[in-house]
Amino acid sequence: MSQNPAISFHKSVSAESGTLVVLTDETLNFGAETTGLGIAELFRKAAGTADYKAKALATLDLLAPAGLQFDRLIVVGLGKAEELVEGDWSRLGGAIQGALRKGEQATLLAERPDGKPISGEQLADIGMGAVLRAYSFDRYKSGKAGKDGENGKTSKGHVKLDIVGSEASKAKKAWVARSAIAEGALLARELVNEPANVLGPVEFAEKAAALEALGVTIEILTEKQMKKLGMRALLGVAQGSVRPPRLVAMHWNGSKSKDKPIAFVGKGVVFDTGGISIKPAGGMEDMKGDMGGAAAVVGAMHALASRKAKANVVGIIGLVENMPDGNAQRPGDIVEAASGVTIEIINTDAEGRLVLADALWYAQKTYEPKVVIDLATLTGAVLVALGSDHAGLFANDDALAAALSRAGDVTGEKVWRLPLGDAYDKLIESKFADIKNTGGRHAGSITAAQFIQRFVDDGVAWAHLDIAGTAMGSPQSEINRSWASGWGVRLLDRFVADNYEG
Ligand code: BES
Ligand code: MN
Ligand code: ZN
């Protein structure tokens, strides 16, 4: 899974036919090698006719270009070359892939018109963008037989891109990590896109357990084991489902040190009906994606292990299904979480925080992490506050918040910090128990975060990412055309790379 043979890097153009992709910018110039192909005159004519200005990622498509051996020439704009930032290279790869037909083989001559070299990392980012863009979830489209007769069995698209650049040998090295990250993101998308009848808690746990092949240590807790540990917050959610819950711990020990691991904790509600506080029918099908946090954690662990990250990281996911049933939990019920905190259930649809409460407890008591980051499709309120362009970030530690914001900015998986505080914490005080699981109509994302913070041990740096707006159904981008975005995999990977490795 780690190497995608469909992307390859070369020092010079070897193809003599097929599709050639070249780069220009708002000066409408080409680099030296591109100019040497003798396309400048042809391009200038076509650009004039089409009023092509080489704005960022704008393409000009020349079919059967006269005087060239290539069948198709695609010119892609870089906009103002001096303004390019890191994320632009993967977006460029996405735009290029988007200009190609499914499975169309192409050669990209990656050369800047301003003479600056495109680094190996940037070339690898182009490849990553192309792989991310090519993904579509077609598995259940029975009519969609691929040319190779695979009949919708793969969702990975068919990328065949030869990337030519002066830094090709460095790009090959950088690609080991980039392809691992892309695979991790695609794995997360796949888990979120799969319907709940296919991926219940047990099946999801099996997918996570497959990381064992990459050297990840896997531990799976069954219902019986969780009962013994007193995880009654998580179990209360699961009790309305005929499908038993699971808790999975994935441990990657990539650092030579004995450092305590960073912990990623994910909400894995394979389907959220709301339980007895049942949700309205409209749009309920989207709740198959209520395990986007768990999917991001699995995808990130996949990326880290597959690129052999030099860091110690543990991923913990709580997997349940939230169903209404004769045995389901009721509003008014009081449960005791494994940490000893008692919780009054006001609304059975505020189930994610109950799952996280026990998953966080387990992560902290088992692995003693100094840093814990949880990810959860936790509240509709975060969509009201931030829409789909930023995930909500909550943290008890400014340095951790800053590090996550930085990782978000460079990967394009952006986060926006929202406040925590005693005044909000008061809103979850319960008449009958220590806390209640909802905080009323206002500040819904914040009171949910306050609830989770009640399960964070003293001295632990903690951040919570509410990804209800970003994990699925977010606007289509240059690097994602799928309902599930795989949000968080690239962010977490980058956070580890920049803060814990090297
Ligand atoms: N899974 C939902 C949150 C959600 C909403 C995710 C929309 C993705 C898209 C969560 O379990 C939930 O139902 N939250 C409630 C909390 C409320 C009952 C306090 C909500 O947001 O309405
Ligand atoms: Mn819910
Ligand atoms: Zn939910």
C-alpha Rg (nearest Å): 24 Å
| Large-scale geometry | elongated
Termini gap: 25 Å
State mean pLDDT (0 to 100 scale). Answer: 95
Instruction: Describe the sheet with the most strands.
Output: 8 strands, mixed
What percent of residues adopt helix (DSSP H or I)? 25-40%
Q: In total, how many beta strands?
A: 17
Sheet-strand content, in percent, reads 15-25%
Question: Counting H and I runs of at least 4 residues, what is the number of helices?
Answer: 15
Main sheet: which strands, in order across?
Answer: 7-8-10-9-13-17-14-15
Per-chain topology:
Blueprint: E1 7-10, E2 19-24, H1 32-35, H2 40-50, E3 59-63, E4 72-77, H3 86-99, E5 105-109, H4 120-134, E6 160-164, H5 168-193, H6 201-209, E7 217-221, H7 223-229, H8 232-238, E8 246-253, E9 262-272, H9 292-306, E10 312-322, E11 334-336, E12 342-344, H10 352-367, E13 371-376, H11 381-386, E14 391-395, H12 398-411, E15 415-417, H13 422-425, E16 435-436, H14 444-453, E17 461-466, H15 489-500
Parallel strand pairs: 1-6, 2-4, 2-5, 5-6, 9-10, 9-13, 12-16, 13-17, 14-15
Antiparallel strand pairs: 3-4, 7-8, 8-10, 11-12, 14-17
Bound molecules: ligand BES, manganese (II) ion and zinc ion.
Description:
By secondary structure, this protein is an alpha/beta fold. Helix 4 (120-134) runs parallel beside helix 5 (168-193), helix 8 (232-238) packs antiparallel against helix 10 and helix 12 (398-411) crosses helix 15 (489-500). It has helices at residues 32-35, 40-50, 86-99, 120-134, 168-193, 201-209, 223-229, 232-238, 292-306, 352-367, 381-386, 398-411, 422-425, 444-453, 489-500, and strands at 7-10, 19-24, 59-63, 72-77, 105-109, 160-164, 217-221, 246-253, 262-272, 312-322, 334-336, 342-344, 371-376, 391-395, 415-417, 435-436, 461-466. Strands 7-8-10-9-13-17-14-15 form an eight-stranded mixed β-sheet, with helices on both faces. It binds ligand BES, manganese (II) ion (MN) and zinc ion.
